[in-house]
Specification:
The protein contains 22 helices and 4 strands. It is mostly helical and 521 residues long. Among the domains are: 124-364, no CATH class; 409-518, no CATH class. Strands 1-2-4-3 form a 4-stranded mixed β-sheet, covered by helices on one side. Strand 3 and strand 4 form a beta hairpin. The radius of gyration is 27 Å and the shape is globular. It starts with 5 loop residues before the first helix and ends with a strand.
């Protein structure tokens, strides 16, 4: 061996450069996107901060509050804290590593949920590019729309695992789905979407039973013994859903939230998706139309279970924006199975491009399984992107905080430093942050828990911004301070009216918020 060849041989023995192929990069891309977007998604003003505060109360007192502690408008009202375990986890993670660790933990939950869906996409195709394409619906929904820190993230995880177990069980790839009741005992204490887990089992049980009866013994139909086992699992999982502080009353809570008129009328995410909205396009209309094209141009027809999943969750997604995520998770593996048998003679240009881009099977694709130093460089760039996006480094690099830019930090600093007391009327979006920053010295007028306030109070809140007699409307609430957004059509009108009224004086103003105090107090 010549001396000049020794370094090369040593590098080969050490495994450098690592055998990273183009397919490896494509396969890693969706996971990297979920990680980066999970790290970069700022803490939202609504539906996060109050969860963190009540988590501190749970951990600090070793008890779960049963009445409202945070508002002065419905203080003492019975309040079901169904997400108590999520909130306790938030508090413990925050205590250990602050908001940064909480964002990282939330991202890990998102990634795990995605990996379960990703594996279901891989099974029928086992070709990297079409797998990446079919998983794209789940990536976009998880990464761009739902990557913020909220209790529902845990539901994404458990929903994906339930789906993974049930699909593989229905395909006779696993023989024992008894993990589902155990998972349900946790899920029911984490988020209200646990009922979707029961719905998934029931749907699979019914559809697979019909398939067995209509088609008889087939490689991909369940035997009578496995159908009975799935029935037992369903019953035990229902029983497991009662392992929560409210037992069977947790279902009343879910129905109350779903039927709450204030949420349905005034909260955007509870309203039906529109084609013009970004969330509607990303979480429903885009996935629905894209998947429908693939299904129609595939030689493989959906079986009864797949069709029920597709239509059932599409119908569910139409009811509200927040339900679109479930359709995106459901549809990705279905699209993967349809892409596996796409018609070769289709004239539809987008699908022809998909076939061309997907190429032949990995083993026959020229250059895609060849390791290259360039691939190593790209992999390092992807890894660096993940590292630089972490909540420990990103604020220092971008100069932006971990929370949304419209979070009213400064005005709450002022209220806290001045030790202001008395009832504050404030934007609903400020309520959660008020709870986090000022409770128990200040309490909210209305906050992200819209369902506990009742339709009349929510109606009063909305009408104050549009009613010329707004002062009279606020009289029953004994308001001492008006905290308003500095910009916005409805807020600007109320600002002008308060400034012209002899009953209010300007106390504070910045680029985000305006604070008035009632005179004579």
């Amino acid at each position: 061996m010549s001396e000049s060849n020794c370094p090369k041989e040593k590098r080969q023995l050490l495994g450098w450069p690592p055998p990273i192929t183009l397919d490896h990069l494509w396969f890693a891309l969706p996971v990297v996107l979920v990680i980066i977007m999970g790290f970069r998604h700022r803490l939202r003003l609504l539906d996060f901060w109050w969860h963190l505060k009540i988590g501190e109360i749970i951990v600090g007192t070793f008890s779960i509050p049963r009445t409202d502690l945070f508002s002065y408008t419905v203080e003492g009202e019975t309040f079901v804290l169904q997400n108590w375990l999520t909130e306790a986890i938030y508090a413990l993670v925050y205590r250990t590593g602050g908001l940064e660790l909480l964002i990282v933990a939330n991202t890990l939950v998102l990634v795990t949920a995605f990996l379960a869906i990703y594996h279901l996409c891989w099974d029928p195709l086992q070709r990297v590019r079409p797998v990446v394409l079919s998983a794209g619906f789940a990536v976009v929904a998880l990464a761009w729309v739902y990557s913020n820190v909220r209790p529902q993230t845990f539901s994404f995880l458990f929903f994906a695992i339930f789906y993974w177990v049930l699909v593989r069980y229905s395909q006779n790839q696993i023989s024992f789905p008894w993990t589902l009741p155990l998972l349900m005992a946790f899920w029911v204490n984490l988020h209200g979407a646990f009922v979707l887990g029961l719905g998934l089992i029931f749907l699979f049980l019914c559809c697979e039973t019909v398939r067995r009866i209509s088609r008889g013994p087939q490689p991909h139909t369940l035997s009578p013994q496995k159908l009975r086992l799935l029935l037992y699992v369903f019953v035990v999982t229902v029983v497991a859903s009662l392992v929560n502080p409210e037992t069977y009353k947790v279902y009343d809570y879910v129905l109350t939230v779903l039927r709450d008129p204030g949420s349905q009328i005034y909260v955007t995410e509870w309203q039906p998706p529109t084609f013009k909205s970004f969330s509607g396009q990303v979480c429903f209309y885009g996935p629905f139309l894209g998947s429908l094209l693939v299904i129609l141009y595939s030689r493989r027809k959906l079986n009864l279970t797949e069709l029920a999943l597709y239509l059932g969750f599409a119908g569910f997604a139409v009811t509200s924006v927040r339900n679109g995520i479930w359709f995106s998770l459901i549809v990705s593996p279905i699209v993967a199975r349809s892409l596996a048998d796409l018609k070769p003679d289709t004239d539809f240009q987008p699908l022809r491009m998909i076939r061309l881009w997907s190429g032949a099977r990995d083993s026959g694709a020229s250059g895609r399984n060849t390791a290259s130093p360039v691939n190593v460089v790209v992999a390092i760039i992807m890894l660096a992107g993940c590292i630089l996006s972490t909540p420990w480094l990103r604020p220092a690099i971008t100069g932006n905080p971990l929370w949304e830019s419209d979070t009213p930090v400064a005005v709450f600093d002022f209220i806290e430093s001045e030790q202001l007391t008395g009832h504050i009327f404030h934007p609903q979006s400020y309520g959660d942050y008020l709870i986090w920053r000022l409770w128990p010295h200040q309490k909210s007028f209305v906050d992200g828990r819209v369902h506990i306030f009742g339709g009349e109070l929510v109606k009063d809140y909305v009408n104050v911004h549009h009613d010329s007699c707004w002062e009279k409307r606020l009289e029953p609430y004994d308001i001492d301070y008006l905290l308003l957004k500095a910009s916005g059509e409805s807020s600007e009108g109320l600002q002008k009216s308060a400034a012209e009224s002899p009953n209010w004086e300007l106390l504070y103003k910045d680029e985000l918020s305006v604070l008035f105090r009632r005179t004579g107090r």
